[in-house]
Write a structure and sequence with these properties.
This protein is an alpha/beta fold and 259 residues long. It is built from nine helices and seven strands, in the order H-H-H-E-H-E-H-E-E-H-E-H-E-H-H-E. It has one domain: 3-Layer(aba) Sandwich (Rossmann fold), CATH 3.40.50.150.
Length: 259
């Protein structure tokens, strides 16, 4: 089971920001400026693009659904979506937003833990965006991957987007976040009975991961100004180079199938 510290962390994020605007401050970078979270959302959306256009009737499981930003997009494309999140507040807000968007009949949201997930159903597509990086212990990470495999329909795909630098970099690590290396993920995939079909980059210009540990130590206006400059420089580079320089990316997309 995921630690109580992590559960409290996500409930706190949800209470503060889930109902605010698009909810990105709750589900992208915790409480960060809107321009930065919009940048994160855009790079993720482009990296996930092929998997956000499912055939009508595709059964999708989103693990760590947050406010339902991907679930609702998938439902609008015709998928039948089940979203799971640790936070009851996130689940309630995802349900509300799906109703407002007119896709409540194609979305089902429930509270659950990736580490011991047992829905009793299988899915054609399992989407998991920046969830494993918040499972701090290796046993929990492995258990979550094994649970995903058990919920995967024959011929289905698991799509993970996680912080997975090619070489060890613990500058941003905390009690609720671990940037495991790509090789660590690949070993865990094998242990869970999964094979990596493909890997794609998300953000090859590594300026933000170098700056973020210093961001909150700077005076507010100074930190935001520097962060804005880094974001402005990073966005075109990330969009142009993510596919051709995956090894340089801090975040990676792993597409997995069952062995």
């Amino acid at each position: 089971m995921t630690s109580a510290v992590t559960v409290r962390y996500w409930e706190d994020r949800a209470r503060r920001y889930a109902t605010e605007g698009s909810g990105l401050r709750a589900v992208c970078s915790y409480g960060m400026p809107a321009f930065y979270n919009q940048y994160i959302h855009l790079t993720q959306r482009i990296a996930l693009g092929p998997w956000l256009r499912p055939r009508s009737g595709t059964r999708v499981l989103e693990i760590g659904c947050g406010v339902g930003r991907w679930s609702r997009r998938l439902a609008r494309a015709g998928a039948l979506v089940t979203g799971v999140d640790l936070s009851a507040v996130m689940v309630a807000e995802a349900t509300r937003r799906a109703g407002v968007d007119g896709v409540g009949d194609r979305c089902e949201f429930t509270q659950g833990d990736a580490v011991n997930l047992a829905l009793g159903r299988r899915f054609d597509l399992i989407l998991c965006v920046t969830v494993i990086q918040h499972i701090s212990n290796p046993e929990g990470m492995q258990a979550a991957l094994e649970r995903m495999r058990l919920h995967l329909a024959p011929g289905g795909r698991i799509v993970l987007l996680e912080a997975a630098p090619s070489s060890a970099d613990a500058r941003c690590d905390s009690s609720t976040f671990v940037a495991r290396t790509e090789s660590c993920y690949r070993r865990a995939f094998i242990g869970a009975g999964l094979r990596c079909v493909s890997t794609h980059g998300v953000d090859p210009l590594r300026l933000k991961s170098a700056f973020l540990p210093s961001y909150r130590r700077l005076p507010g206006p100074v930190g935001k100004t520097v962060l804005f400059g880094i974001t402005l420089l990073s966005l075109p580079c990330d969009l142009a180079l993510a596919r051709v320089l995956p090894s340089r990316s801090w975040h990676k997309v792993f597409v997995l199938g069952a062995e």
